[in-house]
Amino acid sequence: MSDSRKTRFAALAVVASAALLIAGCSGGGSGGGDAADDVEHVYIDAIQADPSSFNPQLTNSPATTAFGAAVFDTLVGITAEADIFPMLAKSWEFNEDNTTLTFDLEQDVTWHDGEPFTAEDVKFNFEEIMEFQTYGAPLVNSIDSIDTPDDHTVVLNLNSNYGPFFETLALQVLIPKHLYEGTDYVTNPANMAPIGTGPMKFESFSSGSEVVLVKNEDYWRGDVKVDRAIYPVMGDTNTRALALISGEVDKAAIDASQLDQLEGKPELVHLTKGFFAQGVVVEMNARNEYLADPEVRALVFSALDRDKFASAALAGYGEPADGFFPDSLGWAKDESIDFAKDFPYDPDAINKKLDAAGYPVGADGTRFTLNVKYISVLTDTVAIAEQAKSMLADVGIGVNLEAVTSEIFTDQVYVQSNFDLAFLRTTVSSDPGLGIARWYACNPDNIAARNPSGVCDEEIEAAIDGANSTPERAERAAYFADMQQRAKELIFFAPLVWTNASFPSVNTTRWDGLVEPDADTATGNLNWLTMTWKG
Predict the structure, then answer these.
(1) Residue 150 φ then ψ, to 5°
(2) Which end of the chain, N or C, is less packed with Cβ atoms under 10 Å?
(3) What are the start-end ranges of the E strands in 151-266?
(4) CA distances (Å), 342 to each of 11, 293, 338, in order?
């Protein structure tokens, strides 16, 4: 039997075991439903790989983030529309000159091991933990000192205004001081057996098999409707699709090419809401002799047919990008930019301009050849790269396609600058000063998942710094408009399509509340308090 078939059967065996739980478990599940209902209410969510950690403050991966959202809480939450709402901080207030920020914490909150959650935990996280999270360091750097006048009050003494303060804070889960203080945070055993204050408690992890969470009976926000959550590990997308369609799992991410299998089945829904916007983007290496000229980069970008990417490569599960920001960030989007007008797809005109730029078609039929990197398991970027090769051939540009693993992509694109073009699926995150600006800011140290182009521009730096130095949205929007205008002139990084193709799909046979996010539901999360068991 092949390894892939063994994996498939092993994964289905895990799901079958979970299905037996759904059908017959009793004696501990009445808290999730009607008093007469003694069936354990089990939610099953297929994951693609083992989590390397359950602590999202130290590890940045989709699986870790998802588990972190279930096990841990944040001080404030953020919706997919970037609306901030209270969590462990039930209220907050600035003083008159915005030099102090006072948080009033929820009371009677306990960690999963029974220890009380207090202001000292919050102080510890600000002082010791948040700087390790992807976006945490600038937030922490805006704080001079922290006071805890009592167990439920935290006062931040600020040294500067940080524009996306709350948007960044909403990404910081709080971990327990009593388990981490004085330890090596990276190797602390609690990273693999997490203790939080969230709606679900960690129960077990079997590598290559499953993760199991159980209901927090004492959750401070209210009654959790799920008794047990099982996350079977299913690396194969065909296995996940089969399990989702058959109703053996409630949620799974499947390949865009498989989404048509959901059509005509009302219980199967591909999610389009509840997540930060995602895009497939093109990265250009300005160190390449042909791409050093912004005018040539603009012609290369124009040669990429964004409409065709959306309709063909993404099978309609996306829309062509018309600017640098998605509509979901409308407050910061410069509406005067229109890719269809600024970078029109017109192969005849592009060919003439490339001729005029001094790049005639040679005897081999090409003007020059570009090495194109993309991650092999991201099927949407694979499809876009393959289409891009044909599009660029139409304007005389040769392409060497190089499908690589995520690790190799990171090393070659960001560390070694060993690429000409790269295609990547990425998210805009909670604020444009975080998730978008990093692709335009200068990156002389070749930090991963940051601008790999080699372009450092003073106007862009000033715009980003300005946007991140004020909390006022109108002022921030003006700075972001400056950034977008300069990004248009230099065109070294840009979205091609905005897409929900990689969002998960759900089977609603057993649970209501999986499709439409409720109010005060953090982006990408379930609302464990409002799901309804149907059996």
Answers:
(1) -155, 180
(2) N
(3) 153-158, 200-206, 210-215, 228-232, 251-252
(4) 49, 17, 6
Q: What gap in Å lies between CA 58 and CA 246, rounded to an integer?
A: 36
- Give the separation between CA 65 and CA 304, rounded to whole angstroms: 33
Please, are residues 145 and 73 in contact by the beta-carbon 8 Å criterion? Answer: no
More confident residue, 10 or 471: 471
DSSP 383-407: HHHHHHHHHHHTTTEEEEEEEE-HH
Q: What is the chain's length?
A: 535
| pTM across the whole model | 0.87
- Tell me, what's the pLDDT at 12? 46
Q: Rounded distance, CA 183 to CA 216, Å?
A: 26
State the DSSP string of 427-442. Answer: E--S-HHHHTGGGTS-
Say which residues have a Cβ less than 8 Å from residue 256's Cβ, sequence separation at least 6.
314, 315, 317, 379, 380, 383, 501, 502
- d(C-alpha 273, C-alpha 275), whole Å: 6
Q: What pLDDT, on the 0 to 100 scale, is given for residue 6?
A: 42
3-state DSSP assignment of residue 222: coil
pLDDT in tens, 252-286: 999 888 999 999 999 999 999 899 999 999 999 99
Burial class of residue 515, CB neighbours in 10 A (0-12, 13-18, 19+)? middle
DSSP code of residue 517: P
Q: How big is the CA angle at 209 (ends 203 and 210), to the nearest 5 degrees?
A: 30
pLDDT at 37: 61
Q: Between the CA of residue 179 and those of 64, 70, 83, what are the distances in Å? A: 19, 19, 32
pLDDT per residue over 350-367, tens digit each?
999 999 999 999 999 999
Distance CA 174, CA 126 (A): 9
CA torsion through residues 500, 256, 409, 319, sign: negative
Pairing of strands 251-252, 505-507: antiparallel
Neighbours of 331 (CB within 10 A): 13
- C-alpha distances (whole Å) from 341 to each of 4, 208, 284 are 47, 49, 21
State how beta strands 153-158 and 100-105 pair.
antiparallel
To 5 degrees, how large is the angle CA 418–CA 392–CA 422?
Answer: 30
The DSSP secondary structure of 409-465, one letter per residue, reads HIIIIIIS---SEEEEEEE--S-HHHHTGGGTS--TT--TTS--S----HHHHHHHH
Phi, then psi, of 333 in degrees rounded to 5:
-80, 135
